[in-house]
């Protein structure tokens, strides 16, 4: 490989050492013939819930499905409004929408990209039933403030923890604060499956029972279908693989943190980087920077052999399902993130020299783009 090239993500580095164990776990499922739900799913649900520190896990088909199931299982009704930050992956809003609820957008913080609770308060109306804090880029939201806000307005809290497996706020893990939380196991997530997967976590036995029904065609007992539920169960082979991978999650997050420290040392003060926040232990799902003339900088990075990503553009309210370009200007801070954000290579096992090369390439590209 050209030694100038730094991939944006390299899943091979996490998989090479554990492929044998994953294949053994898959073979055990194949031998058992237990392909839908079953013991491998239950084992993973228990292990992941316990990792996060909550009572119940319900494995589902994706993170988007986890948001839909969490919305329905927490009792949000069709037509009720759910506050969603305008700067997030579109799945946050689509997941809510697929449940029949109406996403209503709010601003995010200019420095962290996390939900702006003043703007969220301004979005509360007579039909508002829930709020979705998104632990974006692996940063745990300040959940005591989110909880106080939700309590003040009588709202359900559904955490979008799709990017925050293992992140914590004041010692408790992301996913343990809300009435329910949704995680994604998309392959490049901090804990990723070999395909799609997700989970709904909750401490509430009734919400958990409702989530189990909503993922499984509304089935309460064999042949007894009490809701018009989905077929969105966590695949059993994926659960078997995820149980193996969960053992490595803390180590992988530590590797991401090391890379983030090197980036911050080299880039802080020159381009916008996420701040250190007292009380937060972030897991760096991505390493975003904020730069002027982002698209030219991205092009120059790619020209230098550095993989980069854009997370996310355009802002969600400007995507066609939510109104498109006509809504430009409604959420200027979210729109500024969408225009300026660039994600640098970040994955477990990235080496110091790769991080340094990517950081140096950014400094050069920012200089060139300015000329
Ligand atoms: C913040 C956020 N929410 C929701 C999702 C949806 O997850 P999935 O792709 O598993 O449906 C993702 C990831 O894709 C995400 O990053």
Could you estimate the helical fraction of the residues in percent? 25-40%
Strand order of the biggest β-sheet: 1-9-8-5-4-2-3
What is the CATH topology assignment of the largest domain?
A: Aspartate Aminotransferase, domain 2
Task: Write down the domain tally.
Answer: 2
Average of the residue pLDDT scores: 97
Q: Ranges with pLDDT <50 over ≥5 residues?
A: none
**SSE topology string:** HHHEHEHEHEHEEEEEHEEHHEEEHHEH
In the CATH hierarchy, the architecture of the largest domain is: 3-Layer(aba) Sandwich
**What proportion of the residues form beta strands (DSSP E)?**
5-15%
Question: What's the Cα radius of gyration?
Answer: 20 Å
What coarse outline follows from CA principal-axis ratios?
Answer: globular
Structural class: alpha/beta
Question: How does the SSE layout of this entry go?
Answer:
Blueprint (H helix, E strand, L loop, with lengths): L11 H4 L3 H14 L6 H14 L3 E5 L2 H11 L7 E5 L5 H8 L3 E5 L10 H7 L4 E4 L11 H11 L2 E5 L7 E2 L2 E2 L6 E5 L13 E5 L2 H10 L4 E3 L2 E2 L10 H11 L2 H19 L4 E2 L6 E2 L5 E4 L3 H10 L28 H9 E4 L7 H19 L1
Parallel strand pairs: 2-3, 2-4, 4-5, 5-8
Antiparallel strand pairs: 1-9, 6-7, 6-13, 8-9, 10-11, 12-14, 14-15
The structure holds pyridoxal-5'-phosphate.
The site of pyridoxal-5'-phosphate has 15 residues, from helix 4 and helix 5.
């Amino acid at each position: 490989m050209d030694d100038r090239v730094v991939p944006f993500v390299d899943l091979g580095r996490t998989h090479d050492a554990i492929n044998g164990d994953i294949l053994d776990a898959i073979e055990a499922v194949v031998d058992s013939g237990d392909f839908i739900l079953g013991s491998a799913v239950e084992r993973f649900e228990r292990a992941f819930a316990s990792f996060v520190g909550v009572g119940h896990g319900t494995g589902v088909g994706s993170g988007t499905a986890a948001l839909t199931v969490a919305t329905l299982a927490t009792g949000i009704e069709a037509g009720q409004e759910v506050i969603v930050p305008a700067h997030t992956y579109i799945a946050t809003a689509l997941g809510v929408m697929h449940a029949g609820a109406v996403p209503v957008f709010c601003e995010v913080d200019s420095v962290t990209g996390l939900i702006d609770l003043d703007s969220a308060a301004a979005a509360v109306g007579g039909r508002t039933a829930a709020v979705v804090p998104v632990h974006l880029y692996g940063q745990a939201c300040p959940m005591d403030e989110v909880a106080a806000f939700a309590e003040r307005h009588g709202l359900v809290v559904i955490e979008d923890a799709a990017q925050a497996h293992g992140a914590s706020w004041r010692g408790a893990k992301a996913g343990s604060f809300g009435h329910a939380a949704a995680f994604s196991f998309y392959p490049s997530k901090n804990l990723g499956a070999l395909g799609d997967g997700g989970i709904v976590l909750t401490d509430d036995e009734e919400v958990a029972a409702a989530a189990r029904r909503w993922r499984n065609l509304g089935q309460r007992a064999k042949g007894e279908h009490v809701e018009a539920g989905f077929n969105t169960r966590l695949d059993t082979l994926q659960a078997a693989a995820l149980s193996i991978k969960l053992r490595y999650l803390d180590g992988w997050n530590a590797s991401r943190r090391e890379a983030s420290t090197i980036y911050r040392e080299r880039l802080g003060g020159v381009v916008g980087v996420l701040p250190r926040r007292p009380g937060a232990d972030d897991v760096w799902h991505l390493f975003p920077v904020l730069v002027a003339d982002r698209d030219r900088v991205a092009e120059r990075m790619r020209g230098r052999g550095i993989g980069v990503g854009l997370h996310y553009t355009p802002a969600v309210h400007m995507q066609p399902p939510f109104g498109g370009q006509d809504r430009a200007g409604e959420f200027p801070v979210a729109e500024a993130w969408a225009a300026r954000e660039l994600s640098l290579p970040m994955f477990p096992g990235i080496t110091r020299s790769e991080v340094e090369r990517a950081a140096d390439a950014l400094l050069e590209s920012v200089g060139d783009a300015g000329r």
